[in-house]
Amino acid sequence: MKYTLSNVVNRHARNSMLLVFFAVSAMESKGSAIMASDMTESRLYKGFAGTVDDQQTITGKVSDGATGQALVGVSVVVKGSAQGVSTDEDGRYSIQAPSGSILVFSSIGYMSREVSVSNTQQINVSLQEDIGSLEEIVVQVGYGSMKQREITSSVAHVDTSQFRQSGSRNALDLIQGKVPGLQVTRTSGSNPNSSPAVQLRGVVTVTGSASPLYVIDGIPGGNMDLLQQDDILSIDVLKDGSGAAIYGSSANAGVILVTTKKGKAGPPTFTYSSYLRKEYVQRKPDVLSADEFREKIASGQLSESRVDRGYNTDFYDMLVNHENLSHNHNIAMSGGTNNSNYRASVNYRNLEGIGLENGRQEFGARLNMNQRGLQDRLNVMINLATNFNNANLLGGGGWESELFKNPTFSNFNDDGSYYFDLQSTNEYARLMQETSRRKQQTTAADFKADLDIIPGLRASVFGSYQRNSWNDSQFRPQGSENSLENSDYEGGAYAAKSDFLSQSYAFEPTIQYNTSFADRHSLSVIGGYSYRYYIEEGMSASNRGFINDLFHEDNLGQGTALIDGKAGIGSFKNDNTLIAFFARANYSFANKYMLQAIVRREGSSRFGENNKWGYFPAVSAAWNVSDEEFMQDVDFVSYLKLRAGYGETGNSGFGNNASRVTLGGGGRYLYPDEAYRETYGPNRNPNPNLRWETKKEYNIGLDFALFNSKLSGSLDLFQRKTVDLLDTYTTPQPPYIQSNIYTNVGTISSKGIELGLSYNAISRPNFTWSVDLVGSTTRNTLDSYSNDIYTLDYKTFGSIGGAGALGDAIVTYEGGPVGQFWGKRFAGFTEEGKWLFYNKDGEAVRNDQINNSRNRELTDLAPIGNAVPKYYLSLNNTFSYKRFDLRVFMRGKFGYDILNTMALTYGNKAWQGNLLRDAFTKYSEIDDTYMYSDYYIENGSHWKLDEVTIGYTFKLPTNYVRNLRVYFTGQNLATITGYSGNDPDFISDTGLGPGIDSRGAYPSTRSFLMGVNFGF
């Protein structure tokens, strides 16, 4: 019996178009069915009048025309139909097509080929590399996208093929070391409840927001908690002002645009991705064991004031979660037609930290739907995403106190109960007894509609809503150390709860016009309006003196402290509004000369009354040099483009009421009627002239591909200056009410070079090797911090902390570099082990003879190092052999210093607890108090074997499995460095106070991961 597709459609079109795709899928015997991207419904029916009996099975192999290497993922489509497959890992395909039809072979980076189907049943095809298409990668640029060839500003594009493989805790982990000039540093190590510190092209502010603007699928200020690695398609970074100006006063620190995977036409597909990860402590600080501690006391190397209680305890190890196992699961489904398609995914992940009681569980879902109508003139897209996070916030700290406790003590008394004293906290008992949890939900919804009014003219409207809420709760039972040692309510339990809710709204209509004229000219113009509203509110309450542990934190009113008026309670609410008008124009002549201009006029409720509005202009140009006639005989140049641009952006990331008079409580007083009442008064000076910080940036860039695109890359040189820095300055009283004011004074600048290279070293049928290199260097300077009214010669940063009240380690003077250590210069020790330092005349003197003034003309202090890395470098090698693939990723930081505060405190025998072993070797001469000097400044340069991944892609003898790949990853495998403290990679290198090694750093971990990607 014969069933033609036209009969199926005639019988069931009224019911559902899904039956059409079921029939198409049923006719395929091998390969992955796909939908040709340029098909419309009318074309879907056309050309399928033939019966199933007319079909014949065509098989073959697709290869690279230059190397003969098999090409994976090549689209093979029956022209004029929806029937198609893609080539497998060996470049092979199998498709059913009627005699006389045409097969279309296409793949990104290659020129398409069309081959007629005759009586032969095998068609092998070789595709030629299309140099032009290599520059046609689509890059997000804000309120739209452009082809990479058309880009005139500095934009970095990273897609799924380049993402890191070690299981991201945050979406930014995927691009660490992948973008020149972008620093992504995990200062809290692998703590699952932490986010990385991010900085682009150096420091741009002192007190304002230093975080880039995140835009997720067009949502400004998108919530990164909503992102799962398997849902992300690409990440684009607008690095310079000539591109970022389209976002105005939110873009000083750069713009990071995240694009998630969307639905596309084709038969239903399912993808499952998963990984398991195990972590191990590495680079643990080297301290004395209990036996060594006793021996040092017995030998007189430690004073007898130290107590030996007879135990052997590794307090640090007791905080380690040796049973940690993190896992992630994501399943996605997609399909549909050109007129209606979808993608939906659900995700679950359980991230366990290396610390006890330190982890998070997440449940998430994401839905994308696309619908076309009005004869293909209207396209509507809807995105919905939500994430539920249950975090255990109790653990993750206490490492310092446990590491340097007397190791002959114990966490337990002889009767098995927990040991408590007033000199320290029993961190292990705290983790076993107390609770601290967060229940969080983040949700986002956005809607976009595009309407093609006339050819070239498109109107769009975009709207989004984000909601982020969490509930925190803590409980400390009656028997906990915190409760037993409380002097007001000894033995009474403690409970607290807090709630937070933020909501943000965005509405952005735009209109865009694209046209070409006089053969060689093209013009694209977009204009729009942006409205953003953000509101947040929260409350907190705490109580003590609970007489039992039955209710935990769920009955706060029962605590005794509330009756006594000593309970804690607080709440807040604030909002802000931002509106803007913007426009961008792109002009191209002969596809060789390109010009872009941007202007944005923006107003914010945060600005002062006299500065509600600001302008942010930008202009950039590019020249495709390789298209010029004089380059046609330069064979080694495949592609060459020069770029230059200037742009201004702003920073409005400061408090909502910073420009206004605000009231604060002045205390409770007894009134004549003998009642106590709260008083209120101004606690902030108004500043109607308060305005945004403005960054002015120049960028010159070069994009190139050489030797038949074997070597490609980009080079950028930039210079930026941020003016009108925001900070607090001293004011006279009167006329001012308060002694300080928040105002605009000062300038900070940076300049640098960024380089990205890709090299296809070997490209053979069964073996390939490619190399990617990313490098950058930046210099930051605080040019000025004073004006005619307000004067400030310097700022200090980088608290040393610990014993000795040693203050800040970093001093930044006007005109000086950012991140410079200022301190004493070590000159040796006296015979008694007392410190000696050099004064400004070069004489070795005692500490009490050193002038510690901040006046550079008088002080004996001097620059003793710089905490900002001068060079960043990463190197990625990718190999493939048949179905095996291997990635080796290395990165490092060079030319900078770190203050080893752990050695400063615990390398000194003045400390009464446990000590570093170095206290008896490297630092053995010290017999004096704690002191900050260049004695503890060390070279932080390091090179890390950060990630090695080996994978294998299976070829299964079934039509039901599209792909199956398993892989194994090792992360943080080795570090080459001369630094003696904690892992230098996790020490802050961003902001104004970098380079201070924490005494209680979250443990550096080495992790091993096993993952699988499965499609059917």
Automatic annotation (TrEMBL):
Question: TM segments?
Answer: none
Top-level taxon of origin = Bacteria
One cellular component term from this protein's GO annotations in UniProt: cell outer membrane
Q: Which GO terms describe its biological process?
A: siderophore transmembrane transport
Span of domain TonB-dependent receptor-like beta-barrel = 386-973
Give any GO molecular function from the UniProt entry: siderophore uptake transmembrane transporter activity
Start and end residues of each TonB-dependent receptor plug domain: 148-255
Subcellular location per UniProt equals: Cell outer membrane
InterPro entries, per the entry: Beta-barrel_TonB (IPR000531), Beta-barrel_TonB_sf (IPR036942), CarboxyPept-like_regulatory (IPR008969), Plug_dom (IPR012910), Plug_dom_sf (IPR037066), TonB-dep_OMP_SusC/RagA (IPR023996), TonB-dep_rcpt-like (IPR039426)
Similarity-based family: Belongs to the TonB-dependent receptor family.
Protein name, as recorded:
TonB-linked outer membrane protein, SusC/RagA family
Question: What organism does the record attribute this protein to?
Answer: Sphingobacterium wenxiniae
Q: What is the lineage of its organism?
A: Bacteria, Pseudomonadati, Bacteroidota, Sphingobacteriia, Sphingobacteriales
